[in-house]
């Protein structure tokens, strides 16, 4: 397939359970469920939540608990982790938690795995305790999980109950080429965090595809890219709404994190040239605009990358505007996918 061809592409949601200024995590969870229900109606494939810790504007720290809440409030959409930061947890505990989720919501749970801490080093130490300085082997931890989920593990002295014998898809998450090699060697689907780490995206997915080894889980490479999306009725409105995400990432760059801030008229009053440049680099794969602009840019992105699935995350202050953005995004992707090639 050459880069001028288009293929049908699945579309999904990544939710960080972002807490906005003036609201609480309790408010956030309610709006997340509302968004998940709307995404289900719009034909989104999956709704993922990401493990982060010690971040004032991100309320998805107890990721498996929140997955259960979202899955329990929806009916068909797949719900999962984007991801669980595996070095923070014993594989057995992850197997039990996701085995419980998969038992409650059969054929709807995804387990995306990352190896970053999902936080700062001080907090990672608090999470891992004496294991902080231990050598964590990401591939062997994944293999341990696969063993716990295997029906063949019934004779083992250590079993995941529930979890054993359940078909829970495991995804490898990455923001560099390292996880691409792991996903390729293990024959697992690969999700790249291009929404905040675009530098290695093209290199990583090429490496993954080139080195992919078919497995009992997957017969050919499957790539999902996560991107930022802010869509609105007009380009100007989308640009205005996007100043919330600019402020969000300014907090990441500066280390001065806040609750998600409302849009502003002029970012130049908030950041300097160096900060603007750093944020711009992180947000290279961001699609901001009205439906027509979005369609043009996403079409080019899909032609160039040939990803199998595109996952959108949207840090939008107003809940109704956020829902509208996902409505427009789904409409655009459906239109692109329906084009005959």
TrEMBL record:
Domain Luciferase-like, first and last residues per copy: 23-281
Pfam families assigned: Bac_luciferase
InterPro entries xrefs: Bact_Lucif_Oxidored (IPR050766), CmoO-like (IPR019949), Luciferase-like_dom (IPR011251), Luciferase-like_sf (IPR036661)
A single GO cellular-component term on record: cytosol
Source organism, top-level taxon: Bacteria
Gene3D superfamilies in the record: Luciferase-like domain
GO molecular function: oxidoreductase activity, acting on paired donors, with incorporation or reduction of molecular oxygen
Family stated for the protein in its record: To bacterial alkanal monooxygenase alpha and beta chains.
Record-given protein name: Luciferase-like monooxygenase
Phylogenetic lineage: Bacteria, Pseudomonadati, Bacteroidota, Cytophagia, Cytophagales
């Amino acid at each position: 397939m050459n880069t001028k061809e288009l293929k049908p592409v699945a579309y999904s949601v990544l939710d960080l359970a972002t807490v906005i200024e003036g609201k609480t995590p309790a408010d956030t969870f309610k709006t997340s469920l509302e968004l998940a229900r709307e995404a289900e109606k719009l034909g989104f494939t999956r709704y993922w939540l990401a493990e982060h810790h010690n971040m004032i504007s991100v309320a998805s720290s107890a990721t498996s608990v929140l997955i259960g809440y979202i899955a329990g409030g929806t009916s068909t959409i797949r719900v999962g982790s984007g991801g669980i930061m595996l070095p923070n947890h014993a594989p057995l505990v992850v197997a039990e938690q996701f085995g419980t989720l998969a038992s409650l919501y059969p054929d709807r749970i995804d387990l995306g795995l990352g190896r970053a801490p999902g936080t700062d080093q001080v907090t990672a130490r608090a999470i891992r305790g004496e294991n902080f300085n231990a050598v964590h082997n990401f591939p062997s931890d994944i293999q341990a999980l696969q063993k716990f989920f295997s029906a063949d593990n019934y004779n083992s002295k250590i079993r995941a109950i529930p979890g054993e014998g359940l078909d829970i898809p495991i995804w490898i998450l990455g923001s560099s080429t390292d996880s691409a090699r792991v996903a390729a060697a293990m024959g697992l689907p690969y999700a790249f965090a291009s929404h905040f780490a675009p530098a290695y995206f093209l290199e990583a997915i090429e490496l993954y595809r080139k080195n992919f080894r078919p497995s009992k889980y997957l017969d050919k490479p499957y790539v999902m890219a996560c991107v930022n999306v802010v869509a609105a009725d007009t380009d100007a409105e989308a640009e205005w709404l996007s100043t919330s995400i600019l402020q969000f990432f300014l907090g990441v760059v500066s280390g001065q994190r806040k609750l998600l801030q409302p849009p502003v008229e002029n970012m130049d009053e908030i950041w300097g040239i160096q900060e603007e440049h750093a944020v711009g680099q992180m947000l290279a794969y961001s699609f901001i605009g009205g439906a027509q602009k979005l369609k043009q840019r996403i079409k080019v992105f899909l032609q160039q990358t040939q990803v199998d699935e595109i996952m959108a995350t949207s840090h939008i202050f107003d809940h109704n505007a956020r829902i509208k953005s996902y409505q427009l995004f789904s409409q655009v992707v459906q239109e692109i996918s329906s084009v005959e090639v």
